[in-house]
Specification:
about 375 residues; alpha/beta; Aminopeptidase; Alpha-Beta Plaits; 2 domains; eight-stranded mixed beta sheet; four-stranded antiparallel beta sheet; 11 helices; 16 strands; about 35% helix
């Protein structure tokens, strides 16, 4: 027999779908979530929650338990991506070049649905609940730090967040103790020599061979500088130099990303990368510039939080549909900062459906979700809070 909360959430399916599609049609970029924030805040206020704007368009909405002790926080992110949606659906994004291709519309809808379920059960709450609606998850340094600095976790004992995953079947939930996502960093490298005519390279100081050599060397960082068994990724994603076929350029630039899970590994890569850049530049008589931009830290789930998620999810979708040993993900998420201040966990809710062809990954221009995940995510979040 389905859990009472799942039955109640499924009873809201039409409302949840309408909310998700309404938000999907009018996406807004990081730090510009004006209408998005206004819509969500209005929905929470209509339920009797106390809404307080804190940072940017971010706000908290408090549901106080008359007889409860303590407070749990549930977070939803609000921003969309700078991408053109290619789905041919009636609720397609109406804002050119902006779309919810990461599913934050889904997360906001689940938060609003959870508030509806809990507001109707206020007398059953054993603790108060705080909903955190966060701007700018997609744009480092992210909105989590801004909200935390403004006190969004004051009085909070635990904090939980979720993300839809279209590569997991709807009806499943996944999490893990420890590192759940990677630290996601960016590096920028520029080697500068002296340009000239391509027919007389001896009169120039060509930065291209040295930069190409550096690309190859960077691929050895993980293989030869990181302890085996310690996962990390170094990817050069952009190589820019020159303007035409017969000119040796003055400079060449590299752009790329580093993903890691442990701070000592991250620090080693930063150090070794700088050493490589200096060595190659010096060997070729070039000047160099090296910038390493630390992105979001790795999400590190607390054991107590994972246990709570596993218990709640098992009651909603069945124990066999809950994976507590999920493989760490290589993408970054600034929910990490909440867990550096309070215990809790981050988990994934399946939003894919192979039979319906809903399998496109996050950030794809054809990303979509099986909207049954809305009721499931709502029920799990509500069970966590009760």
């Amino acid at each position: 027999m389905p859990h009472e909360l799942l039955t109640a959430a499924e009873g809201l399916q039409d409302w949840l779908t309408t909310q998700r599609r309404t938000l999907h049609m009018v996406p807004e970029l990081s730090l510009h979530e004006f209408k998005t924030s206004e819509h969500c805040a209005q929905q929470m206020a209509e339920l009797g929650l106390k809404v307080t704007k804190l940072w940017g368009e971010g706000f908290i909405a408090d549901l106080d338990a008359p007889n409860g002790k303590g407070r749990v926080a549930l977070r939803a992110d609000m921003d969309a991506l700078p991408i053109t949606e290619l789905n041919d659906v009636p609720y397609r994004s109406r804002h050119g070049g902006v779309a919810h291709m990461c599913g934050h519309d889904t997360h906001m809808t689940i938060a609003m649905g959870t508030a509806r379920l809990l507001a109707a059960r206020r007398d059953k709450l054993t603790r108060s609940v705080r909903f955190i609606f966060q701007p700018s998850e997609e744009l480092p340094p992210g909105g989590a730090k801004g909200l935390i600095d403004k006190g969004c976790l004051e009085g909070v004992d635990e904090v939980y967040g979720l993300h839809n995953n279209p590569q997991m079947e709807v009806g499943t939930v996944a999490t893990r103790v420890g590192a759940m996502t990677a630290a996601a960093d960016i590096f920028e490298i520029k080697l500068t020599g002296r340009g000239g005519h391509a027919s007389r390279p001896h009169e120039a100081l060509d930065p291209i061979p040295a930069t190409a050599e550096l690309v190859g060397m960077l691929q050895t960082l993980v293989a030869r500088r990181v302890q085996p068994g310690k996962p990390a990724v170094v990817s050069v994603t952009k190589f820019h130099a020159g303007t035409t076929h017969n000119i040796i350029p003055d400079s060449a630039e590299l752009l790329g990303t580093v993903r890691s899970y442990e701070e000592p590994v991250r620090a080693r890569i930063i150090e070794e990368m700088e050493r490589m850049v200096q060595a190659v530049a010096q060997a070729h008589g070039l000047k160099h510039e090296y910038k390493y931009l630390r992105g979001y830290d790795s999400i590190v789930n607390h054991e107590s939080g994972v246990q709570a998620v596993a218990k709640a999810a098992a009651e909603i979708v069945g124990e066999g549909n809950v994976n507590t040993g999920f493989e760490p993900q290589t993408w970054g998420e600034d929910f990490s900062y909440y867990l550096q201040h309070r215990p809790g966990a981050f988990f994934l809710v399946g939003s894919g459906n192979r039979q319906k062809g809903i399998t496109e990954p996050l950030h794809s221009a054809r990303f979509n979700v099986d909207e049954r995940c809305l009721a499931i995510g709502t029920a799990v979040m509500a069970r966590l809070a009760l």
